[in-house]
Each structure stands twice: as structure tokens, then as C-alpha cells.
From TrEMBL:
Classification via Pfam families: 2OG-FeII_Oxy (PF03171)
Gene3D superfamilies per record: B-lactam Antibiotic, Isopenicillin N Synthase, Chain
Coiled-coil ranges per UniProt: none
Keywords tagged on the record: Iron, Metal-binding, Oxidoreductase
Sequence ranges assigned to domain Fe2OG dioxygenase in this UniProt record: 75-175
Name recorded for this polypeptide: Fe2OG dioxygenase domain-containing protein
Length: 240
């Protein structure tokens, strides 16, 4: 989707959001399109390298996470550029309400100067300060499920600022729409097989649920997918 200069009541403006394989990319022309494509190709590589590191850390076979994300059509990759203008009364406005991201791995270029991003750690909101030439890596709900909770998706929010205009570029490396998401068997304790916390589902079904529940806790979403799992027989898992 593309939003141009569409101010939201939350005091955030989404300049544009594009998915590499989307025809919408054709609406961005010339140098900008070329730069966006090159940016996406390179960042997708970084995301896949990070997935490999996660595999290594968890003792999963090489390429496991990439394979699970693949589905039948490959992963999806998108970039969203956001603008948070200064707000004279930030106490009355929420920049971006607390949520966990739905997808896989998120690579965020923050504004070099204006802060606002916070994450929840040990029940405390912690600032993620601007840091030049760095990428903030965030994990989404899908990685929490696949890693059986070894990695958690992190609750985060953006606080409106009285001064300065904050811009950010977030890129999302997500599973393909028909990818089947479930805890990696190698990470499930044998004795815990019958008391699994995390469900098995098709990614696009999760996204349909997430669309209406983004700003709510993730646990009820996992629970709802679990209930759906008992109704729908997912059949054999195809990860390639
Ligand atoms: Fe987010």
C-alpha cells in the first residue's frame, strides 16, 4: 500500500510502504525505484544471514528457518517508511501504540537524531536511542513460534516527541503466505509435546487474525490459532 502525506490521528504519517514483488513499486519511478530495489535486495540478504545466525545459535540445521519461511512461493519482503512529526502535546497522543510485530525478522533504520522508539524489557519501557549507521533488529511473532519461545517477539512502541521530526525505514522479512509455521521439532522437549504453548498454522491465517488484534497481547492470538488448528487439518508440512 502507499500512503502519501496521510496524517493519522496517532501523529504518525506513513510516507510509503512497498513490497518488492508488488506492482505498486511501479508507481515509484526513476532513481527512487532503483534505489529502493537495490536497498531491498541487499537488506533481504542481511535478513537471511541473520536467520542463519539464529539457526546456529539454536543448534538448528543450516537453512532451517529460511526453509520454513519459504512456503511454496518464497518469503515476502517489504519496506515501510514512516514519519512522526513533532507533537505539541505528546501526553495526549500515542505515536505508535505498543505491539509485537507479526512477521519474521525486522530491520529498522532509525532517525539519526530524533528518538521515540521504546521496547519493553523486564516490565520497563527502555529507550532505543538513535545510533548512526546501525540497524535495529527486531523479531516478530513467527520466530517466537518457530523457535518455541527460545526467541521472543518484543513489545515496542513509538512515543510522540515535542521537538524534531522522526523518520524511520523498517524492512520486514516475512514467511510466504502459505508457509506453515510451527515450533521446530528439534526445539520441543519430548516431554512437552502434549503441552505445547505454540500452535501450528498457515502464515496468512495468522495475518488475518493479527490485522484486527495488532495492539493486543500476542498470547490470545497464539491461543486463537491453536483453537483453529483443532478445526483445520493442516496436512503434511511442505517447507520448500
Ligand atoms: Fe512494530
Amino acid at each position: 500500500m502507499i500512503w502519501t502525506g496521510k496524517a493519522l490521528s496517532s501523529c504518525a504519517t506513513f510516507l510509503f510502504q512497498t513490497w518488492l514483488k508488488s506492482p505498486i513499486l511501479k508507481m515509484i519511478t526513476g532513481h527512487v525505484q532503483k534505489a529502493m530495489k537495490e536497498f531491498a535486495v541487499e537488506l533481504e540478504k542481511v535478513a537471511e544471514q541473520l536467520l542463519e545466525l539464529l539457526c546456529e545459535n539454536l543448534g538448528l540445521e543450516e537453512g532451517y528457518l529460511k526453509k520454513v519461511f519459504y512456503g511454496s512461493k518464497g518469503p515476502t519482503f517489504g519496506t515501510k517508511v514512516s514519519n512522526y512529526p513533532p507533537c505539541p502535546k505528546p501526553d495526549l497522543i500515542k505515536g505508535l501504540r505498543a505491539h509485537t510485530d507479526a512477521g519474521g525478522i525486522i530491520l529498522l533504520f532509525q532517525d539519526d537524531e530524533v528518538s521515540g522508539l521504546q521496547l519493553l524489557k523486564d516490565d520497563q519501557w527502555v529507550d532505543v536511542p538513535p545510533m548512526k549507521h546501525s540497524i535495529v533488529i527486531n523479531l516478530g511473532d513467527q520466530l517466537e513460534v518457530i523457535t518455541n519461545g527460545k526467541y521472543k517477539s518484543v513489545l515496542h512502541r513509538v512515543i510522540a516527541q515535542t521537538e524534531g521530526n522522526r523518520m524511520s525505514i523498517a524492512s520486514f522479512y516475512n514467511p510466504g503466505s502459505d508457509a506453515v509455521i510451527y515450533p521446530a521439532p528439534a526445539l520441543v522437549e519430548k516431554e512437552a509435546v502434549n503441552s505445547q504453548v505454540y500452535p501450528k498454522f498457515v502464515f496468512e491465517d495468522y495475518m488475518k487474525l493479527y490485522a484486527g488484534l495488532k495492539f493486543q497481547a500476542k498470547e490470545p492470538r497464539f491461543e486463537a490459532m491453536k483453537n483453529m488448528e483443532t478445526i483445520v487439518n493442516l496436512g503434511p508440512i511442505a517447507t520448500v
